[in-house]
Design goal:
By secondary structure, the chain is of the alpha/beta class. It has 11 helices and 12 strands. The chain has 2 domains: about 180 residues, Aspartate Aminotransferase, domain 1, CATH 3.90.1150.60; about 230 residues, 3-Layer(aba) Sandwich (Aspartate Aminotransferase, domain 2). It is about 40% helix and about 15% strand.
């Protein structure tokens, strides 16, 4: 492989050095993969999935048996009452926005207990002014920062005793921040605290990038709702779009009315041929997520060996499919992303440049040579051009191809390092 791909001796030596030590982590990932594969298969068996469920509906989408089976399977996997799995959701942020508007009314209070949500929700909430925001409808918002990558339990407890909170939002993955992502154990602990104070508070978890990484999901440990995108983990690289919400039935019905029409709940929504890809994507998802995790472990191990700061470290528990890399300067960030792009199956020849993106204040460099536009379960790497110039690498549909992409990215990065060394002599 080294000769065929023209990988440098330096990069190859680092790869060979770290390969033996990552095998233990790979074995742990494989064990979770087997567990979640069995969970998905059991749900398919329980609901007797057949070719008939691949059929498409159009128009209003009444009586779509495939859609019904898919949502029953999701409810099983998330150990909850109901689910809404729809192609009409455009993204994870769109799914979150519709869920917020479904649950909140004027003068209700939304509280984030994982700090400030990622950039694309700022205009949704009203952190950044927008006439269509929650704030413009009289919905209140507040946030409590994490402390040492964990919830501020005492501050949350005090806040809930002095404020009437309708919805608590938890963002599990880090977004464009440097914090650690939040484990199921931490989610369970804080939900227990919240429900002991007020069982009626709705706990909603943004589960993007985290599905099937662990054996449990937030709804398994008391969350009322989880929300995510199908061009991330659960789409398995096959779903072309879509999002999901899973949890309590009365809340899912509200989200259905927010997405479609009051009174129609979850009974409408044409699938337009999406049922098969949703089912096949979910079937593949545990294995694809495992590949993504292995690529992340390998990335961390190699870059740590080269002296870069990464999060999580190669031998730490993985909570999501995202790996943070500190580059500390824009040149290294851009070069690494260029390397990921050059190692992609699609648009490998494209020269990527930092540019403006909707919902973000800083220019973004993004490598995403993917089959589905914006798919984060496929190998991609992006980051805002702002100090400390963090890269956010995620995905990889299969380990072998993802590994090659990472090797090419490190090769590109080392070119920069070598040039800097020469210039400093």
């Amino acid at each position: 492989m080294k000769e065929k791909l023209k990988i440098s001796d330096k990069t190859w030596a680092v790869y060979q050095k770290v390969l033996p030590k990552v095998k233990t982590m790979f074995e742990k990932i494989d064990e979770i993969n087997e567990y979640n594969t069995a969970k998905v298969l059991q749900a398919f068996w329980h609901h007797k999935v057949s070719e008939a469920h691949f059929a498409s509906s159009s128009g209003y989408g009444y009586n779509d048996i495939g859609r019904e089976v898919i949502e029953n399977i999701y409810a099983d996997i998330f150990e909850c009452e109901s689910a809404l799995v729809r192609m009409q959701f455009v993204s994870g942020s769109h799914t979150l926005a519709k869920t917020f508007f479904a649950l909140l009314r004027p003068n209700d209070l939304l509280l984030s207990i994982s700090g400030r949500p990622y950039d694309t929700l700022h205009e949704v909430i009203g952190i950044k002014d927008n006439p269509s925001s929650l704030k413009s409808f009289g919905i209140l918002y507040d946030e409590i920062d994490l402390v040492n990558d964990d919830f501020d339990y005492e501050k949350i407890k005090d806040y809930l005793h002095h404020h009437s909170v309708k919805v608590i939002e938890i963002q599990r993955s880090k977004g464009y921040s440097s914090r650690k992502s939040l484990s199921i154990e931490k989610i369970a602990k804080v939900i227990k605290l919240i429900k002991e104070i007020n069982k009626d508070i709705i706990v909603m978890v943004d589960n993007c990038y985290c599905e099937l990484v662990s054996k449990q999901e937030p709804t398994s440990v008391g969350a009322d709702l989880v929300v995510g995108s199908l061009i991330k983990n659960l789409g398995g690289g096959i779903a072309l779009n879509g999002g999901y919400v899973a949890g309590k039935k009365e809340l899912i019905d509200l989200v259905g009315e927010s997405l479609y029409l009051p009174g129609e709940k979850t009974l409408v929504g044409p699938t337009l041929g999406a049922n098969k890809m949703f089912l096949q994507g979910l079937y593949n998802a545990p294995s694809v997520v495992a590949s993504s995790l292995k690529i992340g472990v390998l990335t961390s191990a190699m870059l740590e060996e080269l002296g870069y700061k990464v999060e999580p470290k190669w031998d730490e528990e993985k909570v999501d499919i995202v790996t943070n890399i500190w580059f500390l300067n824009p040149e290294d960030l851009i070069k690494y992303c260029e390397g990921i792009q050059s190692g992609s199956a699609i648009d490998s020849f494209v020269k990527i440049v930092p540019d403006d993106m909707p919902g973000y204040d800083d220019k973004i460099i993004m490598a995403s040579g993917s089959f589905v536009q914006g798919s984060s379960i496929e190998l991609s790497c992006d980051g805002p051009l702002r100090d400390p110039y963090l890269a956010y690498q995620q995905g990889g549909l299969n380990y072998e191809a993802g590994k090659i992409g990472v090797l090419k990215a490190i090769d590109k990065l080392l070119e920069v390092s070598d040039e800097e060394t020469k210039n400093n002599l």
